[in-house]
Amino acid sequence: MPLSAPLKVGFVGLSSSGWASDVLAPALLDASLRSKYDLVAVSTTSPTSADASAKLYSEKVGHPIKSYHGDTSQIANDPDVNLVAVSVKAQFHKQAILPVIEAGKDFFLEWPAGSSVKETQAIAEAARKKGVKSIVGLQGRHSRTIAKVKELLASGTIGPLRSTHVFAHIGREVTSWPPLVREKASYTAEKKNGVTRLDVPIGHQLDTFTYLLGDFTSLTAIDATLYPTGTLVDDDGKPTGKTFPSETPDHFVISGVLSSGLVANLFYRGGYASGPETGRRQYVWEIDGEDGTIRLESDYLYGAFTNIFEPKLYLNGKEVAVEGAGPVGSLDSVTTAWREFAEGHGKFATIEDALKNRRLLDAIERSAKEGKRVSL
């Protein structure tokens, strides 16, 4: 049931820069959501950054905002807060969100909702036990283009569905994973932190993929590391001279059968140079039906980040205009997710969806390691 009064939000990790300040907070504070949400408190790692954030957002929302720092139990136990949003590095997700759940507060948690399937499971179990509601930052399913694809599939335009394939590239210019990694973001290259290529961009894509077409019933996977050495670069992309051994694969081939009966094949490659001079295709997703084909395609450098950027849509080879879809769709998609959560219905992802996705990623890793088919 929709709420009659705005949800009072406490935001953990809302500082002056980053995903939370660039996308999550602007979406939450969108004019269309003023009757649904009210930001009342922020929490960061230090009193200085917390006070700065509280001052900034007090000006934005037009009333004083409380400031907390350190242990999230403080903001979680604020009686004026009914929803706590957490957007911090994945390795801190579990320790940040469990006090929120223990306090009985509904929550938003950024994907990947923990640094491993074990952590995501612990969070999901705690949420079930307390009976709290959740929303997870898997906003790709709210893309206007994806909504149009769902509409086309439901209409039967391409007939009974038969197969699907994804062909994607996450280039070296992204500088989040080897061969080139920004020095300030070097934590992304460590597997233990749970933000590898498989965890983040591929994890986001797989959520959208299964949201549209159904879950995998079984799969086989192959991975490969073609760039065994990473080089740290500065903010301008220039090598610092520091190198390190890569801990995670840069290529994945995933094949399987979906619950809907489709045969699926996905090929993710990473690390090559991009740019128009290479002629490299960044992202293609085709869905084949008996009578036609739906194709999503992007030549943009970050086109494989489907949770952020809207691809072009083609039906039987002809481009389909999608009303309201711009090249960068993340702000619009996150706003839609916030709206649906406040209204109490819709397709927003929950911690249970996050756990399902984490188990899928774990199955991919196990299949590649053991060289055998894995059932889900």
Automatic annotation (TrEMBL):
It holds the Pfam family GFO_IDH_MocA. SUPFAM superfamilies: Glyceraldehyde-3-phosphate dehydrogenase-like, C-terminal domain, NAD(P)-binding Rossmann-fold domains. Gene3D superfamilies: Dihydrodipicolinate Reductase, domain 2, NAD(P)-binding Rossmann-like Domain. Residues 146-298 form the Gal80p-like C-terminal domain. InterPro entries: Gal80p-like_C, Gfo/Idh/MocA-like_OxRdtase_N, Gfo/Idh/MocA_oxidrdct_glycsds, NAD(P)-bd_dom_sf. The keyword Oxidoreductase applies. It comes from the Eukaryota. Keywords: Oxidoreductase. One of its GO terms (molecular function) is oxidoreductase activity. Residues 8-137 form the Gfo/Idh/MocA-like oxidoreductase N-terminal domain. This is Gfo/Idh/MocA-like oxidoreductase N-terminal domain-containing protein.
